[in-house]
Task: inverse folding
């Protein structure tokens, strides 16, 4: 441990440093915060405990969303996507039923808040591709359909000069409602077996210089049983430009984007 220097020796805590004596020596160390046991049991830390539990729930909710379409998300995301998503989930949890620290963690708390979330905040999907996607689902939500009635050159707002084609990528991610269990002092998914599952689908290469009508992409939810009412479905749509060379298509890394377009 570092020793105190100088003529005057002090005891106590000052500016986060603890000054004390031990076996005749005057020492100092960084002051320790409260233990986890104290946070969990001391009423003085009730607010801190509640915040910690809800931050943990937001992290779990965010991870479940990302896990459902992880490989696709990796192609479009920015370096801070996970933290931005956790922050949004935290705000959504704060609108849930229950007392702080025990509020329901569900995307359904605020469905509109999630729609429009960008995987890369520096490249907005709706600025790159201006066509209007329409999302519909079957009665039991096992088949999701994304329809684009019309797509033409005017909708390709930031088309790179080298691009000859574009490709649309759709994805869905199943996310369970999370509930805080007092005996475990943590949040867990209500529909565990269906949580964090996902699927994706891509169109073929679509020529940039012609009009496309009635584009459709269908996604079938990746579960064999009936979808739980405690599951929310996040639906995503992305665009990437391609360059054709002979019979091959090469993905361009500029102006690719993806956003959440529906919550079902």
Result:
């Amino acid at each position: 441990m570092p020793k105190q220097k100088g003529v005057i020796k002090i005891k106590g805590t000052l500016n986060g440093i603890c000054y004390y004596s031990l076996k005749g020596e005057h020492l100092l160390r960084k002051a320790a915060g409260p233990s986890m046991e104290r946070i969990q049991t001391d009423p003085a830390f009730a607010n801190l405990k509640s915040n910690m539990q809800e931050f943990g729930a937001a992290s779990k909710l965010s991870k479940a969303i990302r896990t459902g379409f992880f490989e696709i998300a990796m192609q479009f995301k920015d370096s801070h996507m996970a933290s931005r998503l956790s922050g949004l989930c935290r705000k959504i949890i704060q609108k849930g039923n229950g007392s702080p620290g025990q509020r329901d963690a569900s995307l359904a708390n605020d469905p509109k808040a999630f729609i429009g979330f960008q995987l890369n905040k520096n490249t907005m999907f709706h600025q790159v591709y201006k066509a209007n996607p329409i999302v519909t689902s079957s009665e039991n939500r096992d088949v999701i359909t994304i329809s684009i009635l019309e797509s033409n050159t005017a909708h390709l707002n930031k088309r790179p000069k080298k691009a000859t084609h574009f490709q649309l990528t759709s994805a869905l991610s199943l996310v369970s409602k999370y509930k805080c269990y007092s005996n475990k002092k943590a949040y867990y998914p209500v529909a565990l077996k269906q949580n964090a599952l996902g699927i994706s689908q891509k169109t073929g290469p679509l020529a940039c210089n012609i009009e496309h009508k009635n584009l459709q992409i269908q996604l079938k939810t990746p579960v064999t049983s009936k979808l739980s009412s405690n599951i929310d479905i996040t639906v995503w749509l992305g665009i990437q430009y391609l360059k054709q060379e002979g019979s091959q298509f090469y993905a361009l890394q500029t102006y690719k984007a993806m956003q959440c377009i529906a919550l079902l």
